[in-house]
Amino acid sequence: MGKRLIISILIIMAFFSFANPVNSQKTIDDILYQDFKEVETFGYIYVKVQEEDSLLVGLKSEELTEFAKLKYKNNFANIEYREIPAEESYLYQEEEKAKKVGSIWFRVWTVGEDFPIAYYIECRAGTYKNYEIWRDEVLGFCDATELKQIVRNEITRMIENLAITFFKVRGEI
Length: 173
Description:
Elements: H1 2-19, H2 21-24, H3 28-32, E1 41-50, H4 52-56, H5 61-75, E2 80-81, H6 95-98, E3 101-111, E4 117-127, E5 134-142, H7 144-169
Parallel strand pairs: 1-2, 1-3
Antiparallel strand pairs: 3-4, 4-5
Helix pairs in contact: 5-7
């Protein structure tokens, strides 16, 4: 009796899973990153350089933020960037507005002033409603002469990967 019930339930489940072709067409990216479909503009791009060691080896938040904004323009040419000042961010607390504005945030963290310098770089992208829809990170080590270029290369790579995911989910590539 128990086996027949279980087999019947499995057959019914199989039938319904194949009967709905709409769900079978969705990829895992479509499900995980569907909030990107609502984004109309980006309002926040920032690179946070942490730890005193990072400053000693020449990494500066302002310079890297400008670099990230340039890479954004290269990869998100048809999505406007309209910076939202901190004092106006409360205007985007409303859910309808919050899900239409994207954000990209990086953290660069280093330890050491000479070889080996350990680094951790992360990128979080999302909306004002959900700050962490997408995430990428890297951990490594190098010497001081390579660090600036490695950080720039990783910011470039992360923004390019974000753009691919962003536009794929929206059906634009």
